Amino acid sequence: MKARALIGTILLCAASAVASAHVTVWPRESRAGAHEKYTVRVPTEGKVATSSVELQIPEGVTVVSVGAPAGFTYELKKHGERVVSIVWTRTINPGEFAEFAFMARNPAQTGALTWKAVQRFVDGTRTEWVGPAGDKHPASVTTLIAAESGHVH
């Protein structure tokens, strides 16, 4: 009986580790109207290396600059003058993660920014991180809170 309980605990922990290992955008909370440094964390939890990740930029977010490449390249996809997505290309081996940074101006209103992402792998497969919270492949979310009076950057 103890062996079954131990196996169940191990399986639950393993499932929790995989569930938390997805493309995320930090910080999880920011101020409306503020300039923010966002960091995109991309793990490779499977057996196939990641080749690239594409992050969709939520409506109202203005990308100001992208961190200088260090072992990776990036491409800005635009609709007119607005950056609508950023594609970072870098091999991220299994068991490793990479972080990519960019500066952006948040929209003036409070609410949630939903960061949808597509993670591509060297074997041609992909995982779309676009679902709601609790989904198997959730999009990352940043909550915009009210700016402090007189403190919008």
Entry summary:
This protein has 153 residues and is mainly beta. It is built from 1 helix and 12 strands, in the order αββββββββββββ.
Would you spell out the secondary-structure blueprint of this structure?
Elements: H1 2-20, E1 24-26, E2 29-31, E3 35-43, E4 50-56, E5 62-66, E6 73-79, E7 82-92, E8 97-105, E9 111-115, E10 117-121, E11 126-129, E12 140-145
Parallel strand pairs: 2-12
Antiparallel strand pairs: 1-3, 3-8, 4-7, 4-10, 5-8, 6-7, 9-12, 10-11
Main sheet: strands, sense, barrel: 5 strands, antiparallel
Shape: globular
Report how far the terminal alpha carbons are from each other.
59 Å
Listing every helix as H and every strand as E from the N terminus to the C terminus, the arrangement reads: HEEEEEEEEEEEE
What spatial order of strands do you see in the largest sheet?
6-7-4-10-11
Mean pLDDT: 87
Q: What CATH first level would be assigned?
A: Mainly Beta
Task: Tell me the CATH superfamily.
Answer: Uncharacterised protein YcnI-like PF07987, DUF1775
CATH architectural name: Sandwich
What structural class do the secondary elements suggest? Answer: mainly beta
- Count of runs of 4 or more consecutive helical residues: 1
The total tally of domains equals 1
The portion of residues assigned to helices is 10-25%
> How many runs of DSSP E, i.e. beta strands?
12
- Cα-based radius of gyration, to the nearest Å: 18 Å
Q: Give me the CATH fold name.
A: Immunoglobulin-like
Q: Which residues form runs of ≥5 with pLDDT under 50?
A: 1-20
